[in-house]
């Protein structure tokens, strides 16, 4: 049997609030899972019903004490998204290391049918990840790159465009349009002289 290659992770202190009593703690479902499954701590007698297009803040009943230098990322569960079109609205949600409130998940139903969030339903994933805090410094100009300011689809969408480094081939301009554009760039005096010569030749 192959040995698990999971590294021993860090310890996260967690407090279970009264309305989470009886629910298991979030857990990794496989040996190499990246996220712990978060469960809904809604009352068993009052599940949350999400109408199509509706969203709701779902309680988990958990308060986390994340180690300094880490964050908690709340991400959607692929199964809910694929089968019911239910996802995390602000994906990924961020839990800061100094936050000491209850972890809540904003779920939205993007499907065509109502969705019921029952107590103990696995509604999202929690990924604990390292973070780097940046220090900003104002400069007169930033460095040049081959890409420059290209964005919002500037690299194209086809595989051919990607293989050319994001550059798309320019289409050739029709000859008539090209000659018109060249004529428009001529100085006004030159255009008037040409018109007078054509009149004299008639």
Explain the overall architecture:
The protein has 202 residues and is of the alpha+beta class. It has two domains: 13-130, Deoxyuridine triphosphatase (dUTPase) (Deoxyuridine 5'-Triphosphate Nucleotidohydrolase, Chain A, Distorted Sandwich); 173-202, no CATH class. It is built from four helices and ten strands. It has helices at residues 78-84, 159-163, 175-185, 188-201; strands spanning 13-16, 36-39, 48-50, 55-65, 70-75, 86-88, 93-96, 102-109, 115-117, 122-130. The strands form three sheets. A four-stranded antiparallel sheet has the order 1-4-8-6. Strands 2-10-5-7 form a four-stranded antiparallel sheet, with no helix packed on it. The model is unreliable at 1-7 (pLDDT under 50).
List the helices and strands and how they pair.
Blueprint: E1 13-16, E2 36-39, E3 48-50, E4 55-65, E5 70-75, H1 78-84, E6 86-88, E7 93-96, E8 102-109, E9 115-117, E10 122-130, H2 159-163, H3 175-185, H4 188-201
Antiparallel strand pairs: 1-4, 2-10, 3-9, 4-8, 5-7, 5-10, 6-8
Average residue-wise pLDDT: 85
CATH class of the largest domain: Mainly Beta
Number of domains: 2
Instruction: Give me the CATH superfamily of the largest domain.
Output: Deoxyuridine triphosphatase (dUTPase)
CATH fold group of the largest domain: Deoxyuridine 5'-Triphosphate Nucleotidohydrolase, Chain A
Helix and strand element order = EEEEEHEEEEEHHH
